[in-house]
């Protein structure tokens, strides 16, 4: 039977319409919720969301997760979700399940035409059955160091195969927060005395080569969209041999003396992730607050902090501005 199937696949023929239908069903186009909606992505893409802390990167991952775990329709109400599983790998170890529950609850209430009650977590009128169904679609893994992350990737295929029969759905979205969490610890551990270097230990480059290799293999067997957040560091000078990427916004605004208009300065960020990781990234987004000291500005409840988002890969000339509320991130004019 298996030999017949392989021979039939080799000798078989299909039209362009059949081929496109098969590809689109295996790797469907996914439109992420605003402010990540500008460019459609599909299973197999790797989207990197970079930005300093705090800049709402984790919230953007949560919003993408909520869109995925919500159904398209439920009891006659349109929710616009995908109704698929989400796998969240937490490398930062700071994920708050209560925040996910809050955003999910607000989305359910909004879809039912209910008003969100200020800063309180309004549970009245929320469909608890739907809430439970959605939360069962959210799979969570926490890793405390690089080797635990490697072990997770190597066993992920068997874990996903085990989860699929019980849920009846496949993982559509893989979220990694924060992909560079262990970079500086691993790099510092390699700057050890010479007597300790004699021990056989993998290099930083070899670790990331295995990470990317395992991730590529996983995406071949389990087509899914990967979104990874990454903390950035500023680079004030451009030295030869250093890699930088640029965003069209900066920590604060400057005023053009000729026009009198406020403009965002261009800010440089130093790239520290290995080139093997950069090669697998298909889409890159940079997000940042417009305040010079967001920590000191966050206490002003009457003026929410403005966040700025820009697509660098592929490059777009549009810069989106959004603010953070209980229900998530919302675009502003």
Automatic annotation (TrEMBL):
MF GO annotations: ATP binding; ATP-dependent DNA damage sensor activity; DNA binding
Entries under SUPFAM superfamilies matching the protein: P-loop containing nucleoside triphosphate hydrolases (SSF52540)
CDD domains documented for this protein: XRCC2 (cd19490)
Cellular-component GO terms for this entry: Rad51B-Rad51C-Rad51D-XRCC2 complex; replication fork
Gene Ontology process terms (BP): double-strand break repair via homologous recombination
Transmembrane segments: none
Domain RecA family profile residue range list: 5-238
InterPro entries reported in the protein's UniProt record: P-loop_NTPase (IPR027417), RecA_ATP-bd (IPR020588), XRCC2 (IPR030547)
Name the UniProt record assigns to this protein: RecA family profile 1 domain-containing protein
Organism of derivation: Punica granatum (Pomegranate)
Taxonomic lineage from the root: Eukaryota, Viridiplantae, Streptophyta, Embryophyta, Tracheophyta
């Amino acid at each position: 039977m298996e030999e017949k199937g392989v021979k039939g696949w080799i000798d078989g023929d299909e039209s362009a319409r059949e081929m496109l239908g098969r590809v689109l069903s295996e790797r469907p186009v996914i439109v992420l919720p605003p402010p990540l909606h500008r460019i459609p992505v599909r299973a197999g893409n790797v989207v990197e969301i970079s930005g300093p802390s705090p800049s709402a990167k984790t919230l953007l991952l949560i919003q993408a997760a909520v869109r995925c775990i919500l159904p398209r329709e439920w009891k006659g109400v349109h929710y616009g979700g995908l109704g698929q599983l989400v796998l969240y790998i937490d490398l930062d170890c700071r994920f708050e399940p209560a925040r996910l529950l809050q955003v999910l609850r607000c989305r359910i209430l909004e879809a039912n035409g209910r008003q969100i009650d200020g800063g309180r977590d309004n549970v009245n009128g929320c469909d608890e059955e739907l809430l439970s169904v959605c939360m069962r679609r959210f799979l969570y893994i926490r890793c405390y160091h690089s080797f635990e992350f490697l072990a997770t990737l190597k066993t992920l295929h068997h874990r996903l195969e085990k989860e699929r029969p019980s849920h009846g759905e496949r993982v559509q979205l893989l979220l990694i927060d924060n992909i560079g969490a262990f970079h500086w610890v691993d790099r510092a551990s390699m700057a050890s005395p010479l007597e300790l270097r004699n021990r056989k230990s993998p290099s930083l480059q070899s670790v990331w080569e295995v990470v990317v290799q395992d991730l590529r293999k996983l995406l071949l067997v389990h087509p899914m969209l990967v979104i990874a957040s990454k903390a950035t560091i500023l680079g004030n000078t451009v030295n030869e041999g250093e890699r930088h990427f640029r965003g069209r916004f900066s920590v604060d605004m400057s005023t053009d003396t000729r026009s009198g208009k406020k403009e965002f300065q261009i800010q440089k960020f130093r790239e520290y992730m290995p080139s093997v990781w950069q090669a697998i990234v298909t889409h890159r987004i940079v997000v940042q607050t417009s305040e010079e000291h967001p920590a000191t500005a966050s206490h002003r409840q009457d003026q929410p902090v403005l966040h700025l988002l820009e697509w660098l890969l592929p490059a777009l000339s549009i810069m989106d501005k959004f603010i953070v509320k209980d229900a998530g991130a919302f675009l502003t004019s």
